[in-house]
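User: For a benchmark we're assembling, each entry needs the component sequences followed by a predicted structure for the full assembly. Here are entry 17's components. Please fill in the structure.
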Amino acid sequence: MGLDRRDFFKIVTAGSASMLAGEVKAGANGGNHRFSDNFGVLVDTAICIGCRKCEWGCEQANSLAFRDKSEYEDKSVFENQRRPVPDKYTVVNTFEKPLDPANPYYLKVQCMHCNHPACVSACIVGALEKKTEGPVTYDPWKCMGCRYCMVACPFQVPAYEYAEPLTPQVRKCGFCYDKLKDGKKPGCVEACPNEALTFGKRGDLLELAHNRIIQNPEKYVSHVYGEYEAGGTSWMYLAGVEFEKTELPVIGSEPIPEITESIQHGIFKAFVPPLALYGLLALAMHTFREKQAEKGDNHE
Amino acid sequence: MKIISKNPAIVGLFLPLILAVGFVSGVSRLSADEAKKTTLDCGECHTCENPSAENLCLKPCPSLFMLQEHAKHTVTEAPDSMLLKILVNEYGPVRFNHKLHARMSDMDKGCAECHHYSPEGRIPPCGECHGGEANPANLRQPSLKGAYHRQCLSCHREWSHSTACAVCHIPLGAESLTGNVKDPTDIIGIPHPLITEPVKRVYYTPYDRGPMVTFYHKEHIDLFGLRCVDCHQKENCVFCHDLQKPARLKKSQEEVHAICSGCHGTHKCSKCHDKKEKPAFSHADTGWPLSRFHRGADCRACHPTGKRISKLNKECIGCHAGWNQETFAHAVVGLQLDEIHIEIECADCHVDRKFENKPVCSGCHDDGRDPRKNPPGKKI
Amino acid sequence: MNNHQIPAPVKAVYFTRGARILALIAGIGMLAYFYRMIVGLTIANINDQYPWGIWIAIDVATGVALAAGGFTTAALAHIFHRERYHSLVRPALLTAMLGYTFVVIGLLADLGRYYNVWHPVLPSMWQGNSVLFEVGMCVTIYLTVLYIEFLPIVVERFKGKVDLPKPLAGLNKIIELSLSIADATLNKLISVFIIAGVVLSFLHQSSLGTLMIIAPTKMHPLWYSAVSPLFFLLSAIAVGFPMVIFESLLASRSFKLKPEIDILSSLAKMIPFFLGIYLGAKFIDLTLRGAWPYLLDGSVESFVFLIELGLGAVLPIILLLNDRIRNSFGGLLAASALVIFGVAMNRINVFLVAYNPLYAEKPYLPSIYEIAVTIGLIALLILVYRAIVMIFPVISVPPSDGSNLVDRTEGSLVEVRR
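Assistant: Structure for entry 17:
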């Protein structure tokens, strides 16, 4: 974390210096731009029509279920807010469109693939991993099932196979990492007929998102969810109403694992603090032993 | 480039300038041979082999902003029905009744309802720019599949509340059975009635003193030159249809009054309301039948305030006092005056500038000639 | 070793009525435990929103905290050489050893893939950013250290007395040899392990408090603090002595031994000091974070928070500052029980009450199986403790009852007053 912060300050100082020189640079949170080349997806809730084909595509790509496409035309599922579950890495929910309540907005939910994933930081055995391309993947063979990742996730995304007696897994969207490596798009993006999901480099997606906001100020609020949330995420959202009114949580721009990691690395900085404590206690033991011995001698 | 890429607002402000400077400098410097040396593919932006400064023949596609151009097109230009089958793989093609949609759009934003780029002349079909796959180099441009679905579903789901594929897509293979083609206007199990322009409509209203309102629809178009959208504003599909509610075929009293009063004013009910069917408006009833010259004129040209004109005499100069041989194009009456006659005063033929009377030649010619048989120019 | 207090195996009837009831509870708990191992976590009321239940909050977090008596007593007696407390070291060590053992057993119930519990030991899976990794490693090493620290007791009990029955008689010499080697080496190395035990305890006790910092958006502001590890450490230190006192009193009552009130009372004198530091730190933290308003908003959390600190910290300080209460059996028992209650409640609060996940449909309440396992493990722990103190020389009997003692070197067991 120390390195990150140093980077951050470097960028900020460089930025302000160049601004003084009359050059306009990208704003604060410069650290985010390190993730510009990561893959990401922009979810445009103003374009999404709630057809749920992304759910179908996801289930096909991950071999979760093999239902007929037409089954996803059932709109009754929107009556309840759904969450990703072990056999559904992504779900579409609704949120209210103030001007047209009969045709609500739709919101696809899945793993956000944070730039600084709390789950990866939390994982005790490294079963969760942030790939350089952007995805946060999971290796069930390493996992011991402590579920600390689920506690850590600020978006409450990972689901657990509680019903599985011996080989339960943490289940969440893996960004179709294998498909990505083959130069393909994730299953949900491929299935989206309306192209409400745009797959691309995170930097390009941010540009696209801001472009859409500027061109259609009446259609979007000026906020790209995921640009800064939790230190930035690979998946980002556009919406027509304030994100406070959606089910997406309000999250600050600091990376979630920042505090725990700085505490951990502070305590274990080159093992100096534990060794110092050890030395101190050894010294105390020695001193008090001598004292006790003297006392004992006096008593004798 | 970094500045541009990080600040779309700046791009928005300076894009036209950048493009203009870029084209002028770029095109004038690059010869065709030099252009071939660049790694750019000319065909990506240009439609012709050798673009020049005079003829850039630019494709509308690779733009930072969605191209917006809306020349005036009419419904009659629209193709009747089309089979969208370029992308057929999982689903069958879509039979798209273009004309029906054009008619409906005519009551809202017209062609622009769907076509964001409809320049003068030929309107390029969607597939000319939007490719089969989303263009990774230009994330702003959806693929053809995305563009189609966005166009259709943004409206369709508003009233159908459904995103079922089979609403539009013909089942795979079915399109070959030509006799069995689904009626493209049948989108919810009932074919949509053809949208026609009625000649006249009689409305029965709850207004006691004049329950009947006779509305001459055709007259408003033909006589007064109104376009559909002048009265039918924002009447897209969802205005009438919502499958969760009965179809809305009538406008509310307020809505109707608002439309009519936009031109007529609502201060006088009897203007429209009557106990019986009103006859169509005829200018002759006012004691002033419109002749061939006035018939085609815009009402407001004579009635700029919309008010009645009273105490008119039948003399042309009563209104057209300013006419003289220079300001009046004589050809409009069907006679192009020859070089001699075009120079002389109006009153030389039209005695006392009484244009409504027959002109005479006797002011100059003694041979008693008749202007009908011996016109002072060429009849056209 | 102190010359007037000699630890010896306690001689008593094992299956008293209380022990039978405990055995029943432990039996039910074990059935639930094995049922869990076969059918999986579905029998627990945890879900995607509440992935952690009482198995983590009580069995693990509270278990670790309450085992703090081991390192605090070891530090007091061995590092700071307060010799008069030597008689408390062995019971505290045994509590810590059993406590951590049962933490691991409880943890196994909670792990979805318990057979992978050894994975953090593999360098290929080391994950230095994970707080849990540090806790896991520290607990593993500390547990080993605890077993090593306990070894001298085993040696003391069996050295020179190994006499296995006929078929295994051949092993007698080998075991005897290894015992003497252990005896010789351990005496020289034991200090190393004792200090290591304290350092490891400092590390993982505090790191348990770091665990929930990774969920800033879900934690109630009364408990969410960046210095939470400090609170965990301070409260662990504060609960160490009360735990030792509580156990000692209960053990003396159970085995009908005369309680060492004078030693325990002087030990209890230190408790208000540690509790005071803990309370003061909490006070400063709440002020600095401006979290006081949450204390008065009438929510369940504010109520629970007040109970946690009021009953668990303020009240015992008041009680223990009173000489008469501190020198009475009942007063000591109540005060130490209150501290234990307070710290246990703190752990439960941090891990369960303060944790408000998004999208939760209903609050978490433990299932009957979770309760059965948790209570069953506690009952089993007490039974194992009881068995060990009856086999090994753990509990010291005060010299006033010297008539009951037989010289240790002669190898007879303690005769206990009936």
